[in-house]
Amino acid sequence: MKNELKIPFYLALQSIKRGRKWTLFLTILLMAVAFINLIFVSALFNGIVEGSNQQIKSTLTGNVYMAPKEGQTNIDAKDKLLSDVKRIDGVQEVTSGFQVPARIEKGSRSGTWPVIAIDPASYAKVIDISGHMYQGKYLDSNDEDSIILGREIAGGDDVVMDSTSLKGAKVGDKVKLVFDNTEKTFIVKGIFYTKFTESDARAFITEKSFSSLMPTMANKATTINIKTLGTDESKVLTKVQQHYPKIDAFLWSEAAGLMKSVSSSFTSIDVLMTTVGVIIAAITIFIVIYVDIINRRKQIGILRAIGIGPNILISYYIILALVYATLGILLGSFIFYAVLVPYFQVHPFVLPITDAVLNLKWTEYIIRLEIVTWVAVVSGLVPAAIVTRSKMIDEILGK
Amino acid sequence: MLELFWCQLRKHWHKSLSASSYIVWGWYVSLLVNETILCTLYARIIIVSIDTVIRVQGLVKEYGSGDNIVRAIDRANLEIQSGEFLMITGRNGSGKSTLMHLMALLDDFSEGEITLFGNKVSGLKPIAKSKLRLKEVGYIFQEYALIQELTTLENVMLPALMLGSIKHAKEKAHKLLDKVDLGHKENRLPSQLSGGEQQRVAIARALINDPKIIFADEPTANLDSFASKDVLEIFRKLNKDDGITLIMVTHEPEELTYATRTISLKDGKIYEK
């Protein structure tokens, strides 16, 4: 058993030490490319899904959100509710919004979008609209005639739903808000752009201006948004559900809506691409090692002729393949983490839902590492087994 | 072999006795020395005279299939005794190398039987054949067949690594390279050696596991006359001094003078000369 490993290791070491350096480098580079090919798509899809999830949490719902139960239209006594919820363990910040479907008109252009009445200060602590101002300014609590519009409402050449937008509303423009038989003209104070279409297709006004329009809705809300400490979202959700059984409470993921199917599709595509990647990696690694072995047929024949058994020769090629794979994985990981990840942090993929960066989970990395390792083992084993079973004398004489 | 064992046993039994007096002890010692010499000589005589290292019976080797079958060895019979220096001659395509390959377990035969050191080859599994090649057989190719990525020393020590430690293999390889006058070139790669030097490395490699038999397939074919003579002198010493059985294929008539026996092959059939 000792010899079964001693000789293969010795031969592999000498082969790497004395083999052609450029051939070795190109082999390792090919392995690295095959490995990057496996992790890149997964990292990209994961980056998109993670990015969009983050968008949902930070620009739409918070970590946990509360909504009226079915059959009810709003949550009463929201001021007391907010102060009570804030005292729950694990809650960092809490805010509320009153959402109404409203018609927004600017000149000949008009459309119906959700308009949300908020307390700008507390809302900014949970939902990050203030940090995504594209033009103008965020709302102040005392604003009465100001409105901020998402870019999907304001319009612009590069927005997704430009055809149904106000086609170029600017800061300072007057827009008419029509809802529930009430209408009021607001001045566009700012335009925000989160790059998350669902968020950007909303408009915000202050609670103060909403109360003046609909005094009966004061101290009422349609959603309560909660930002949690750390990642204990589920625990906070459970506590909220226990404290307020008459109000529905959900995790942010329940509001993912379209993104849920997008994520699911990405997972399927990822599996498909990974399978294709594995096949490509397997074929690449197999060819690399097979060519290497074919080039060493004479050497294998000589080794067999001097009494080195087939199992030892197969072990030699498996070890050689594992060395190639390990070095390829190391080089691939270095290129991925030291070059590609930082590059895409600076130059992210611009998508309608988020600016996606590469985000590879460790579990995914380990799985792909194992895949490449096993592929290398098989790629070393199969050709070596074929060659060691062929006629020794033909190998030596190069027939 | 039994006689050799009996002699050794008696020798060790005598060793373990406590001598009653210096005279008796001295008498014993003289007796043992004489006995050891006699035992060794006797054993040598037994091995040389009665050990058939290779027996070839009705051997057939065919290539191809269907109507394209070519019979390279045609019902060959041969017995090679321990200590022989057998040279095989014949024209190109007569089957010399094929016969060597078959006897050295490098290739499989179609019919007949080869018995190598009492082992019927047809019943041996590939691993058993590998072990026989490793421990009992040395093979020297016309084209040297050295591993190009390994140094002279590493090429020689490689078969010994299978049986012992790196240190032991290195020591043995050093000695053998000195024996073939290449001790000063042990760190060179094969590409940095002349043809004659490469062939001497191949000889050292063939000797590393103390084989009982060495096959050499036209070992001088690619060498000049000086290098050829060097190689043949090494073979003569190995055969005469170390008692190694040598089987060599050659085209050169003048080389036949080194042989103790010569056979020739024609159309796959063996003819004694």
Note down, in words, how this protein is organized.
The complex is a heterodimer of chains A (399) and B (273). Chain A has helices spanning 2-18, 21-61, 78-86, 120-126, 151-154, 197-200, 207-213, 233-243, 258-295, 297-305, 310-346, 362-389, 392-397, and strands at 64-68, 91-106, 109-118, 133-136, 146-150, 174-179, 182-192, 203-206, 223-228, 247-251, 349-350, 355-356. By secondary structure, chain A is α+β, with helices and mostly antiparallel strands. Chain B has two domains: 2-49, no CATH class; 83-108 and 125-272, P-loop containing nucleotide triphosphate hydrolases (Rossmann fold), CATH 3.40.50. Chain B is an alpha/beta fold. In chain B, a hairpin with a 2-residue loop joins β4 (111-116) and β5. The chains are: A alpha+beta (399), B alpha/beta (273). The interface between A and B is medium-sized, with 25 and 31 residues.
